[in-house]
Design goal:
- There is one protein chain.
- The protein has eight helices and no strands.
- The two termini are 31 Å apart.
- The protein is mostly helical and 198 residues long.
- Helix 4 packs across helix 6.
- The protein has one domain.
């Protein structure tokens, strides 16, 4: 596994997950939850989110095989999900409606705020194009970053300010848009080639 380690792939997958998770863009939500419920267990939230992502990376394919869906089709579906998330970030619109959380614990911080449907779909989409070791490294780096952001949420919001947060959200939205198109074209080509052989 370690022979496939690539710093370039690790950085790419880290940035993709960072943009999809968008924990910096979620700072106002995190701060609001902290004010409403008193405290957020940063360690537990980050560990649970990281565990969910790692587990889904390895059992996600088995689930797909069980329901009869190939990884390329799922990756294309994931590309559409990433595309929609990117549009939300760039245009400031809400396509996916989130219900109001009942408590600031593992739910909704670890799931679905960090390891939500978009993140899990992205993981399998990435697995179709990158080596596991680099995706694992990206998950660990993002889990660490999520922990640091949760731990210093109030301080970060004061320092960055709402304008900076909005700019960061739009920048990562554009990055995600480009990545979604790349994922779609790469996996569509693979899917097309697979079916042509038959």
């Amino acid at each position: 596994m370690f022979e496939h380690f690539s710093l370039k792939e690790t950085l790419t997958t880290t940035m993709v997950l960072f943009a999809v998770i968008d924990i910096v863009g979620s700072l106002p939500i995190v701060v609001g939850l902290k004010q409403k419920f008193g405290r957020i267990d940063s360690e537990k939230s980050a560990l649970v989110a990281g565990s969910i992502m790692l587990a889904f990376l390895f059992i996600g394919n088995k689930i797909l095989k069980f329901i009869g869906v190939d990884v390329y089709s799922f990756a294309i579906a994931g590309a559409f999900v990433i595309f929609i998330i990117a549009l939300e970030m760039i245009l400031g619109i809400e396509i996916h409606k989130n219900t109001e959380p009942k408590a600031a614990s593992i739910v909704p911080i670890a799931f679905p705020l960090v390891a939500g449907a978009g993140t899990l779909t992205t993981l399998l989409s990435l697995r179709a194009n990158y080596h596991d070791i680099n995706i694992i490294a990206a998950i660990l780096l993002n889990t660490l970053f999520v922990y640091l952001v949760l731990k210093s949420a109030n301080w970060l919001e004061r320092k960055l300010g709402p304008t900076t947060l909005q700019v960061l959200q739009k920048v990562f939205g554009i990055v995600l848009l480009a990545i979604s198109i790349k994922l779609f074209t790469a996996n569509f080509a693979q899917l097309f080639t697979t079916y042509i052989k038959f």
